[in-house]
Design goal:
Blueprint (H helix, E strand, L loop, with lengths): L5 H7 L6 H11 L2 E4 L4 E3 L8 E6 L2 E6 L5 E7 L4 E2 L1 H5 L6 E4 L3 E6 L1 H10 L1 H27 L2 H18 L7 E3 L4 H8 L3 H13 L3 E4 L2 E4 L2 H8 L4 H4 L26
Antiparallel strand pairs: 1-8, 2-7, 3-6, 3-8, 4-5, 4-7, 9-11, 10-11
Helix pairs in contact: 2-4, 4-5, 6-8, 6-9, 7-8
């Protein structure tokens, strides 16, 4: 059911969605596709491509350089939109790859037009979610330029935990993480050897452990302080009356409940 999907839970962090609002997503939700780990859903330079809503699994967006190296610009979890710009622009400016086996719902430009026309609340929630994703990109850009290697890794994993918690896939103490050290390196401007060394230092310091594809925060508050992780850019909610809606009887704002356990 679409109302129980990670995407609906993510949007509900910004705006209370009614049955009619969620019905606007039902056609898209049912258009499911499966992709194996390592396959690109969207290719850089591809024209007339679809966007997707990630329903299960992990993916990443990356840019491939002429020398064959790549920069991962975002990791994606269930509930995220993939390649939205690719259906709004002439062509895709990045690739989207499945990190694990995934299930994703295909989104066409006509789907967005229909959903926005049927539900002001849905349009507002998607706009707010997309804006939050841009805030995450800004925070990560600051990290690449100004944080140490250890701070970058800690900040990245804390951000992932916060996002997983938002869609009920993490308890903020630990989470399963399929990312390899090479993928973290490509995202954080480091070498895999450097990532390995930093993860060992963080473990020996008692802050966190990343072993056997599971992240455990051994000292959550200490790690937050070390990484200077301000989660405001992830947990900000829609200001009341910022976007007044004529359907005010079901556009009740409710804040994201965030609590470390």
């Amino acid at each position: 059911m679409v109302q129980n999907s990670p995407f609906a839970r993510k949007l509900s962090a910004y705006l209370e969605l009614s049955g009619p609002d969620l019905a606007a997503l039902s056609d898209v939700y049912d258009r499911r596709r499966k992709f194996p780990a390592g396959q690109d859903l969207i290719s850089q330079g591809q024209e007339n491509s679809s966007a997707f809503i990630l329903m299960k699994g992990w993916a990443c967006s990356y840019v491939l350089l002429e020398d064959g190296s790549r920069q991962i610009v975002a990791f994606h979890i269930a509930g995220d939109t993939l390649g939205l710009r690719s259906i709004l622009f002439r062509g895709s400016d990045h690739n989207v790859e499945a990190i694990t086996n995934i299930e994703a719902s295909e989104v066409l430009i006509s789907d967005l037009a229909s959903a926005f026309g049927r539900s002001t609340e849905m349009a507002t929630a998607i706009l707010w979610s997309a804006s939050r994703d841009v805030s995450a990109l800004v925070a990560n850009l600051v990290g690449l330029g100004r944080r140490s290697a250890a701070e970058r890794i800690a900040h990245c994993l804390l951000e992932l935990a916060t996002r997983l918690h938002e869609v009920d896939l993490c308890d903020m103490h630990s989470f399963d993480c399929p990312l390899s050290q090479y993928q973290l390196a490509d995202a954080l401007g480091l070498s895999a050897v450097h990532v390995n060394r930093v993860l060992r230092e963080l473990r020996e310091s008692g802050l966190m452990t990343f072993q056997k594809r599971r992240v455990t925060f051994d000292d959550f508050d200490g790690l937050v302080a070390f990484a200077q992780f301000d989660r405001t850019y992830l947990k900000d909610t829609l200001p009341k009356n910022r976007f007044p809606s004529p359907k005010s009887n079901h556009s009740v704002i409710r804040p994201l409940q965030y609590q470390a356990r």
